[in-house]
Design a protein that fits this description.
about 500 residues, mainly alpha, Rossmann fold, Glutamyl-tRNA Synthetase, domain 3, Glutamyl-tRNA Synthetase, domain 2, 20 helices, about 10% strand, elongated, binds glutamic acid
Length: about 500
C-alpha cells in the first residue's frame, strides 16, 4: 500500500489509569490508521499540572503495549513531529494565544477567583440561564475588552496575573461535521469564553490540543463523545488561527454504558458487579487503593481487544471472533454506531473463553504449570495434559485453569460444610467404608474396570448412584464440583484415591 496521508492521534491526559473506554478510543485510532495505511501517534497531554498523577503515563503506555496497539510516533521512539509530550512543548503555545489576542479573537482577563465566584453566584441568584463567562457577561468583568487600554497596559506591565480567554462570537451558528453523528449545529451564545492560556504560564487542553493537532498534521480526530461539547470551540480556534482549511475531520465515539444501559460505565460499576474497568491493575499512588485489571484477571490481550473492537463498531456480519489483521482490514468509522454500547462483563468472559479454548492442550498446560510453580506443586507433563483435557471447556479466564484443577494436585484440607450437610446421610459412612475396602482390591486401575466395579457395588448395596458418588466426590475434591469422579480417580491414581477416601472418612467421621 502506498503511504497515505492519514494521521491520527491518541491523546490521553496522565490524570489516572486508562479506562477501557480510553483503550477503545486508542484501538479505533490504531485500526483506522492501519486500515488506511496511515500513521497513529501517541501524544501525552500533560498541561494540567494540578491533575497530573505520577505513574499514569507509564501505566497508559504499558496498557497500550499489552493490547498490541503500536504507535508510529510517541514520546519514547520520537518522530518527525516531536516532542510528543505537551510539557516538553510548553513554550510553543504562548505565541498562538498572543496571535489570537492580536487578531481580536482572544483577550486578557485579570479576574481573581473570588471575582469569578461572585459573578457566578450573582447570575445564579438572578436565575440567569447562562452563568458563564461569555458574550453576555464579559463586559462586566476585569479584562482587556472591558477595561481602558491604559489600565490593561498598566496591569500587564505590573505583572498582574492574567489568563487569556477566547472571545466567543455572538449570534453565530457553529457547524461541526462529525463522521459519526453528521452535522452538529451549536449556537455560539451557549458557549463560554474558555481559558486558553493560564496564569501559571501553561496552555489549557483546548489551545494545546488544537495547536498540536495542527502542527502534527492530524487528519482525523477520533475521540470520546465527552469531547463533542468542546468541538465547536475547537472549530472556532481552527478558524481564528487561520487553519480552517486543514482542519481535521472529527469522529466522536459513543460512550461505553453500564451493563444496565443507563449512564457511562464507571469504576464504581466494576467494583459493584465485580469486573475490571482498567486494562491493567492500578494502584492509586495517594490512597494505595488497588483496582483490578484485565491482564491480572487472566484475560488474553487478543480477547480483550476483540471484545472492545465490537463495543461500538459493527462489522455488518455475524462474525464475532476477529484477529487483529481482520479488525484492521474490516474496520471503518461508517460502521461505528451513534448510540452507546452496553458493557457486558459476561460477554467479556465469553470472548476470553473462545480464545482460551482455541489454544491446544500443550499451550494450556504451559499456563497451568506456571500456577503449579507458584503454588509449589510439581507434576508430570503427562498429568498436566490429562488435566487440561478434562477442564479446558469450563475455563473462561486463565486462573480458572488452576482454580478448577487444584484438587488434582493437592488433596482437600477441608470439606465443604454445606455440601456435607446436604449429602451425608446416616448410612453414608458405612457405605463408603465398605466401598473403600472393596475398591482397594481392584488390580487394573482403568476406566472400564472402575466403572464395572462401581456398578456392581451399587447394585449389590441396592443403592443409587448419587448415594455413593456425591460423598465420594466430597472426599476426593472437597466440594461438589469438577469433572467425572472416574476421570479424577484415573489422573490421581489408585494410591492417592484410596488415601483421600480413607483420610476423608476419618476426618468426617471422627472430627464431627
Ligand atoms: N487529553 C484529552 C483526553 O484526555 C484528549 C481529548 C482529544 O482527543 O481531543 O481525553
Amino acid at each position: 500500500m502506498s503511504e497515505s496521508k492519514v494521521r491520527v492521534r491518541f491523546a490521553p491526559s496522565p490524570t489516572g489509569p486508562l479506562h477501557i473506554g480510553g483503550v477503545r478510543t486508542a484501538l479505533y485510532n490504531y485500526l483506522f490508521a492501519r486500515n488506511h495505511g496511515g500513521k497513529v501517534i501517541l501524544r501525552i497531554e500533560d498541561t494540567d499540572r494540578n491533575r497530573y498523577v505520577p505513574g499514569a503515563e507509564e501505566y497508559i503506555i504499558e496498557s497500550l503495549a499489552w493490547c498490541g496497539i503500536i504507535f508510529d510516533e510517541d514520546s519514547r521512539k520520537g518522530g518527525p513531529y516531536g516532542p510528543y509530550r505537551q510539557s516538553e512543548r510548553r513554550f510553543m503555545y504562548r505565541d498562538y494565544a498572543i496571535q489570537l489576542v492580536k487578531s481580536g479573537h482572544a483577550y486578557y482577563a485579570f479576574d481573581s477567583a473570588e471575582e469569578l465566584d461572585k459573578m457566578r453566584s450573582r447570575l445564579k441568584s438572578a436565575e440567569e440561564h447562562l452563568t458563564q463567562y461569555g458574550p453576555f457577561t464579559r463586559m462586566e468583568m476585569q479584562n482587556s475588552l472591558s477595561l481602558p487600554a491604559e489600565e490593561v497596559k498598566r496591569r500587564l506591565d505590573a505583572g498582574d496575573p492574567y489568563v487569556i480567554r477566547i472571545r466567543i462570537p455572538e449570534n453565530e451558528t457553529v457547524r461541526v461535521n462529525d463522521l459519526i453523528r453528521g452535522e452538529v449545529l451549536v449556537q455560539s451564545n451557549s458557549l463560554d469564553d474558555k481559558v486558553l492560556y493560564k496564569s501559571d504560564g501553561w496552555p489549557t487542553y483546548h489551545l494545546a490540543n488544537i495547536v498540536d493537532d495542527h502542527l502534527m498534521e492530524i487528519t482525523h480526530v477520533i475521540r470520546g463523545e465527552e469531547w463533542l461539547p468542546s468541538a465547536p470551540l475547537h472549530v472556532l480556534l481552527y478558524r481564528y488561527l487561520g487553519w480552517e482549511k486543514e482542519m481535521p475531520q472529527f469522529a466522536h465515539l459513543p460512550l461505553l454504558l453500564k451493563p444496565e444501559g443507563n449512564g457511562k460505565l464507571s469504576k464504581r460499576d466494576g467494583d459493584r458487579l465485580g469486573f475490571p474497568v482498567f486494562p491493567l491493575q492500578w494502584k492509586d499512588p495517594k490512597s494505595g487503593e488497588i483496582s483490578s485489571g484485565y491482564r491480572e484477571s487472566g484475560y488474553f490481550p487478543e480477547a480483550f481487544v476483540n471484545m472492545l473492537a465490537l463495543l461500538g463498531w459493527n462489522p455488518g456480519t455475524e462474525q464475532e471472533i476477529f484477529s487483529k489483521e481482520e479488525l484492521i482490514s474490516q474496520f471503518s468509522l461508517e460502521r461505528v454506531g451513534k448510540h452507546g454500547s452496553k458493557f457486558d462483563p459476561e460477554k467479556a468472559k465469553w470472548f476470553n473463553h473462545q480464545y482460551l479454548t482455541s489454544k491446544n492442550d500443550e499451550e494450556l498446560a504451559g499456563y497451568l504449570s506456571e500456577y503449579l510453580n507458584s503454588n509449589g506443586v510439581t507434576s508430570s507433563q503427562n498429568t498436566l495434559l490429562k488435566v487440561i483435557a478434562l477442564i479446558r471447556e469450563r475455563a473462561n479466564l486463565l486462573p480458572d485453569l488452576w482454580n478448577n484443577s487444584r484438587f488434582f494436585f493437592i488433596p482437600p484440607d477441608q470439606y465443604d460444610e454445606k455440601v456435607f450437610h446436604k449429602i451425608w446421610k446416616p448410612e453414608t459412612s458405612a457405605l463408603l467404608k465398605d466401598f473403600l475396602s472393596q475398591v482397594a482390591n481392584i488390580d487394573v486401575w482403568e476406566e472400564d474396570s472402575l466403572q464395572g466395579f462401581i456398578h456392581t457395588f451399587i447394585e449389590s448395596h441396592s443403592a443409587k448412584m448419587g448415594q455413593l458418588m456425591n460423598p465420594l466426590r466430597l472426599l476426593i475434591v472437597g466440594t461438589n464440583m469438577g469433572p467425572g469422579i472416574i476421570d479424577i480417580a484415573l489422573v490421581i491414581g489408585k494410591e492417592e484415591f484410596l488415601r483421600r477416601v480413607s483420610t476423608g472418612l476419618e476426618k468426617l467421621n471422627y472430627g464431627k
